[in-house]
Amino acid sequence: MDTVVGIVNGAFIAFISYRVWLNDRSRLKPIYWPALLFKLFSGIVLGLLYTFYYNVGDTFNYFNDGVRLADLARQDAGSYISFLWSGDESFPVWSDLIYKQPRAMFLSKITSLFCILTADNYWFIALHFSAVSFFSAWLLGKKILILVPDSRFAVAFAFFFFPSVVFWSSGVTKESLAMAALFFLCFIFLRLWANEKVTLFEWLITFLAAWMLWSLKYYYLAVFLPVAATVLMARWSFSRMMPEGLMIKVVLWCLIFIGPLLLISVLHPNFYPERFLEVVVSSYHEFLAISSAQDVIHYDTMEPTPSGIVKNIPLAIFSGLYRPFFTEARTVLQFLSATENFLLLILTATALMRFKNVVKGKHRLLIFSLMIYIIILCIFLALSTPNFGTLSRYRVGFLPFFVFLLIAENPLVTRLIKSKWPANLAP
To answer: Hey, how many other C-beta atoms are within 10 angstroms of the C-beta on 270?
Structure first.
């Protein structure tokens, strides 16, 4: 029976993958199969990493909770459906679950659905999650390429081949489905930006993606929505009011941003103005207490006050983007992360050479807004999650966009592509 279920699941993933490839007409098509296989392979490797390296981890806890809920479904489908909708301590299965925190339990509930479909096979669930994440990224990548035709290498590398981006958004993790939701929301945003019609079905998927992202990684959505709404409103304001001068437009953008930001601040208790700073500082000290002194970012006197946070922002931005360094790496994973960060430093230095072109470019509003998203999310994550290992995983929420900005039209990358990269993948 397990063999039959495995064959059915493998055949389903292969069929969907083949149909997507067959109907694809984009200039990304040459990398489709290598990128998909890399993504699926990463989902399996993540499970192996937690099996043989960490010995314990969130991914198998989500799976084990999913198995318990799937067993409930097989025994009492009615109770299972009720638990999916409003699971609490009144259900007997509650005491058997490892995770009772809402966001973790949300993923366990989703995992339980796939447990039913795969006969409790962790590895096929990892493949399903990885495939969903890949297809969403593929949809966004093709849309970006339409908007920026010369960005094929940047899209390919940033979204499909940058190791930590692919790895930490694969397998049975919150980031896997959260990034799938975020990528789809970005796709819809670009549709609206291009004044394209969004179908009713796409709107339904959009609301589902927003709900999923909010349930898994609410802070990703809490930064994305205000920025996306501001960009669209700013574009409308610029076209109607025709403000002159770059600084005027920047100031107007910031003023518009206040509205959506205030709206988001009342949607989650952790964002209430009176609580936000305390949540950040409290999270920082919690990570500090459970982490090795060499594995965390140390800030000067973190206090839940505006001045206590602001003075640490420069270090948070730099550390969130470029640390750990080689000198701070003590494990194989940290060394790999340091290698990526060193590459990001080089790309940043060379990308600054085209700063004037960006300021004068036709996509400067989008680029400015994307930079705001990256910086805000980076600050929040680096301050509240100072552990290098955890931060390397969490920053996947902004890392593919950061890598894309650094590579697109980067003079160093452009020269390397023209001399080394296959002609069918060059810009």
So the answer is: 16
Q: Are residues 382 and 286 in the same domain?
A: yes
Residue 99 has pLDDT above 70, yes or no: yes
Is residue 342 over pLDDT 90?
yes
Same domain, 138 and 285: no
pLDDT band at 4 (very low <50, low <70, confident <90, very high): confident
Last residue of a domain, one of 163, 181, 196: 196
Q: Please list the residues that pair with 296 across neighbouring strands.
A: 387
Model's pTM, two decimal places?
Answer: 0.94
Question: Is the same domain home to 282 and 425?
Answer: yes
CA distance 279 to 96: 29
pLDDT tens track for 368-409? 999 999 999 999 999 999 999 899 999 999 999 999 999 988
Question: Is 232 part of any domain?
Answer: no
Q: Which amino acid is at 255?
A: L
- Tally of domains within the chain: 2
All residues at 6 or more sequence positions from 177 whose CB lies less than 8 Å from its CB, including other chains:
107, 110, 129, 132, 133, 212, 216
Which domain covers residue 17, as residue numbers?
A: 1-196
Tokens describing residue 258: 């206040």
State pLDDT tens for residues 117-154: 999 999 999 999 999 999 999 999 999 999 999 899 99
**pLDDT confidence of residue 237:** 72
For residues 62 and 185, state if they share a domain.
Answer: yes
Q: Is residue 376 part of a domain?
A: yes
Please indicate, yes or no, whether residues 285 and 404 belong to a single structural domain of this protein: yes
| Alpha-carbon gap, residue 23 to 295, rounded angstroms | 46
Mean pLDDT of 337-359: 88
